[in-house]
């Protein structure tokens, strides 16, 4: 445990905050709890994050960024055909969300509450994800695999059309029998639509 502010970093605070949120939930978790877990004063935490809201925003962004970073590697994989990249990207998004919901349900429920409170963080996250999708669709348009007139618009449509497989509101459905087949059917329909768009 750090005993001085010199050894305290924003990353350590965020790690401790995540653990405190897991144990207490968003309604009861306090900055004092985070400081106690780190063995420092709450003033030391406030030197890194000026308010409780700023700390919550940072920890939520960090949680969402883990998914974005993983998907960014797929979006940038130019050695894969655009259709393969699109399918892999959507599958990875579904798997990442499903893993978070299943592996750590308490923390997933906590972040679902925080995400609802932090509109700008969610907006930025969705903009990042749809931007990655737009790059994949634009690459497909350039290669002739897709014929989308506007990749950004097509990306938003694909993102919203697959919402059942990544929106936390549907988390209870992600373990139902047949959900993988339903996912594949939706993705197949979208891919065929991208191939036919504008024709």
Structure description:
There is one protein chain. This protein has 199 residues and is an all-alpha fold. The chain contains nine helices and no strands. It is elongated. Mean pLDDT is 90; it is low at 1-5.
List keywords for this structure.
mainly alpha; 199 residues; elongated; disordered N terminus
Secondary-structure content class = mainly alpha
Instruction: Output the number of helix runs.
Output: 9
**Mean pLDDT over the full residue set:** 90
Query: Roughly how much helix do the residues carry, as a percent range?
Result: over 70%
For the biggest sheet, the summary is: none
How would you spell out the order of helices and strands? HHHHHHHHH
Distance between the termini: 62 Å
Low-confidence stretches: 1-5
Q: How much β-strand is present in the residues?
A: under 5%
Identify the quaternary structure here: single chain
**Inertia-based shape:** elongated
Computed over alpha carbons, the radius of gyration is 20 Å
Total count of strands: 0
Per-chain topology:
Blueprint: H1 10-28, H2 31-38, H3 42-48, H4 52-75, H5 82-103, H6 105-117, H7 119-143, H8 151-161, H9 179-196
Helix pairs in contact: 1-2, 1-4, 1-6, 2-3, 4-5, 4-7, 5-6, 5-7, 7-8
Short account of what is shown:
The chain has 199 residues and is mostly helical.
């Amino acid at each position: 445990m750090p005993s001085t502010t010199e050894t305290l970093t924003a990353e350590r605070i965020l790690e401790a905050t995540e653990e405190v949120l897991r144990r207490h939930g968003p309604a009861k978790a306090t900055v004092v709890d985070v400081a106690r877990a780190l063995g420092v004063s709450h003033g030391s935490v406030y030197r890194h994050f000026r308010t409780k809201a700023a700390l919550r925003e940072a920890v939520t962004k960090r949680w969402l960024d883990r998914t974005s970073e993983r998907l960014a590697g797929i979006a940038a994989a130019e050695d894969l055909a655009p259709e393969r990249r699109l399918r892999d990207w959507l599958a990875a998004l579904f798997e990442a969300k499903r893993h978070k919901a299943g592996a750590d349900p308490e923390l997933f429920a906590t972040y679902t509450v925080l995400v609802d409170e932090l509109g700008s963080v969610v907006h930025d996250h969705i903009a990042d994800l749809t931007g990655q999708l737009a790059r994949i669709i634009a690459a497909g348009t350039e290669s002739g695999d897709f014929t989308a007139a506007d990749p950004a618009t097509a990306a938003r449509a694909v993102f919203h059309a697959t919402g059942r497989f990544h929106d936390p509101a549907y988390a209870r459905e992600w373990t139902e029998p047949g959900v993988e087949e339903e996912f594949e059917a939706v993705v197949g329909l979208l891919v065929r639509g991208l191939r036919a768009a504008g024709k």
